[in-house]
Amino acid sequence: MPTYVLNRSYTHRSRYGHAITFPKGEPTWVPPGPIELEVAALGADRVDGEQPDLVPQTAAPKAPASDDELEGLMREAFVELSAKNDPADFTASGVPTVKAVERTIGEDVTAKQVAEYWAKMKAEQG
């Protein structure tokens, strides 16, 4: 049960419908979740645990794959999608859909790239 202490008397009216009265210097229970972030942003200190992170850490953006890496990833995706043979993963002309390729490799691709690498792979296969 998170408790917080504030260095002044204050009543916080949360945008989530809660009103919490903080007597100066007395530990006060705060409902867990987003209200804790509001209270921490006021300057309240958590008594019974770690202070919540007000600025969430995000992962660094992933660098896009080089053309060679992208071609390798797409070839693997084509093999996987062909083995799965789900009609929803292919266009009417038999080319894998952009969404199916993106879902398989975890990279953003264009229809032009898919068509180009698909045609290249099919030409090599004869």
Question: Features of this protein?
Answer:
alpha+beta, two-stranded antiparallel ribbon, 126 residues, three-stranded antiparallel beta sheet
Write a structural description.
- With 126 residues, the protein is an alpha+beta fold.
- The protein has 2 domains: 3-46; 67-125.
- The chain is built from 4 helices and 5 strands, in the order ββββαβααα.
- It has helices spanning 34-42, 67-84, 98-105, 111-125, and strands at residues 3-5, 10-13, 19-22, 28-29, 45-46.
- Helix 2 crosses helix 3 (98-105) and helix 2 (67-84) packs across helix 4 (111-125).
- The protein is rod-shaped.
Beta-strand residue fraction: 5-15%
What is the residue-averaged pLDDT? 88
Determine the structural class based on helices, strands and strand pairing: alpha+beta
Give the helices and strands as they follow along the chain. EEEEHEHHH
Side by side, the strands of the main sheet go 4-1-5
Gap from first CA to last CA: 67 Å
User: What is the makeup of the main sheet?
Assistant: 3 strands, antiparallel
Fraction of residues in helices?
A: 25-40%
Secondary structure topology:
Elements: E1 3-5, E2 10-13, E3 19-22, E4 28-29, H1 34-42, E5 45-46, H2 67-84, H3 98-105, H4 111-125
Antiparallel strand pairs: 1-4, 1-5, 2-3
